[in-house]
Amino acid sequence: FKPPNTKLPTKHTLPGVKNVILVSSCKGGVGKSTVSANLAVALRGIEMKVGLLDADIFGPSIPKLMNLHGEPRLTDRGKLIPLQNYGVQTMSMGFLIPHEDSPVVWRGLMLQKVLQQLLFDVAWNDLDVLVIDLPPGTGDVQITIGQLLKVRGAIIVSTSQDLALIDVKKGISMFHKVNIPIVGLVENMSVFICPNCNHKEHLFGDNGVLRESQRLGINYLGSIPLNRQICADSDMGLPIALKRDSTLAQPYYKIAGIVK
Ligand code: ADP
């Protein structure tokens, strides 16, 4: 007996890519793209050959974070050649639309087509790890990627706020449904240390991500403070992980060490 409609789409590996790591968040604005860019830079820092794919097609921020602009060239076979900075091969929807400030208004088929192109028509060159920055939430794009790609694991970025943690469970169950292991949870914006008086403030709650990881039996990959330098360097297109000796870079190197 074979039950009907239970066939899942075949999962593909990507040519030129050994491992795929997804970076996801269940809410927007928790720092997913910042983690993706810094993780890619940190992996490069530990001698991995790294690619970064910005699949956040509605709000691509990787071009700015990696200080990369311009249109990708094509290979003889019509594949997109990634742009490169800081030793990280990078591809983003942001390179395929004419201006940074033009809204992405494509829907349905057009979106599917662009996504297919970003997933399957990029000429990655001999990567140990491809980091994919997913859109926030648990929508069609995330599920499509989860169903189509062979993925080593997913990292979920969250703050410790209850509002964010509620959605983390949704994210975890989505990855379970498409058979993707969870590498672990990253707590972003964990603590703010006042530069004047050194007072520590847990703006979004104290240890919420750690407690949730323990409750769900999932790895806790560490915490990243809310820090002005991380924000300012991001705006200049200089991921903080480039400053390898900075204490602010250490959380990203820790995660890199885990996923390498
Ligand atoms: P998401 O991809 O989840 O939407 P982003 O990575 O774009 O989030 O980050 C949202 C904003 O927060 C950006 O302005 C970014 O520079 C800032 N940000 C992210 N992480 C930190 C941090 N640890 N400290 C300070 N600012 C941060």
UniProtKB/TrEMBL annotation:
GO molecular function term, any single one: metal ion binding
Key words of the record: ATP-binding, Iron, Iron-sulfur, Metal-binding, Nucleotide-binding
Pfam family, any one: ParA
GO biological process: iron-sulfur cluster assembly; mitochondrial respiratory chain complex I assembly
InterPro entries: Mrp-like_CS (IPR000808), Mrp/NBP35_ATP-bd (IPR019591), NUBPL-like (IPR044304), P-loop_NTPase (IPR027417), YlxH/NBP35 (IPR033756)
Gene Ontology cellular-component annotations: mitochondrion
Top-level division of the source organism's lineage: Eukaryota
Family membership noted in the UniProt record: Belongs to the Mrp/NBP35 ATP-binding proteins family.
PANTHER family to which the protein is assigned, alphabetical: IRON-SULFUR PROTEIN NUBPL (PTHR42961:SF2)
Protein's recorded name: DEBR0S4_02036g1_1
